[in-house]
Hints:
The protein has 15 helices and eight strands. It is an alpha+beta fold. Among the domains are: about 5-105, Arc Repressor Mutant, subunit A (Orthogonal Bundle); about 210-330. The strands form three sheets. Strands 1-3-2 form a three-stranded antiparallel beta sheet. Helix 5 (about 110-115) packs across helix 11 (about 210-225). The longest helix is centred in the middle third of the chain and has 16 residues, at about 210-225. It starts with a helix and ends with a helix. The model is unreliable at about 280-315 and about 320-330 (pLDDT under 50).
Amino acid sequence: MHESQLQELRREKWRLDGRPVRTLEEAREFIESVGFCLLYAQRPPVLVPTFVGAHKGCDEKLPTPQMAFADRSAHEAKELMVRLLREKAAYEAKVFSDNNFIVSASVFPYFYGQVGDRNPKQPPKASGRAGYSPLAVDAFRILQRDGPISKHRLRELLGGEISEAALDRALDELWAKLRITRVDYKPDEGVFWDVLFRWAPQAVHQGVHVSFAESLTALVSKYLDCVLAAQQEEVEHFFSPIMGRARVREAINALQAARELRYVHVGGRVLLQISALPLPHPSEVNQEPTSKPRLQPRRPEQGRTLVARGRSRTVRAVKSGTAGEDSGKR
């Protein structure tokens, strides 16, 4: 395969080929097809699709977060993203600074299983491994009691002397561990926040009961499905904001041992690719998932050996959005 062929296949899957995503249904199909994306273009670039690019239908002059305020297409893409969040067809996560990271409904339980808190209803503590600040603890308690509420109202309840920058840092602490999430936006009131386990109880329940090994290998598999093929360095770089590179290498090695990955040569480079299925034909992308995942609890001792057994089913499940059906059979 030539580099130009790989780029063309990515453009079709990422909706950069003149087929803009404009309706809610098209947005749903796009995010389920790619699994996750950034809202805006990232500098330096990250190998992942962007929602604003899919909305424009091309990758020319895509706005970064710093330039989005002056770009009409960025405003329209953000409004469409908010509609996805409202109906829980997608979720946000704090991964890249100043850029919205969007995760599909079918992939989100795996993402939560990797970075989310295993005791979501228990209020965070100001000391310990999580390292929450006292302000973050107070903010969580108010959101748990009164949410969803706007950031402006939250600041009033915390005390007017708290600076906006300090509140933003506290919210980012909670958001990074998926304790809270942005659930709405109103021009006259701004962003609304709520505790995630109340906003999306089923997704959180699923994520709590998926093992670290399963969530990690499923995310790596879905990323390779999203980009079609990538160098190991690119895979490690993409996941580096949320986990150590050594853990990503461990997942790649486990998938290779289970024969779920293969090497392909593209333009003189050696890339990783899912071996269970070939590269998709352009007409096969953006297929609607048959169901949302309904993950089942797994015995702790199975966590480390998951990748050695039944990985084909897990890879197919996360690719198609039917993880629950597959998990229920195990």
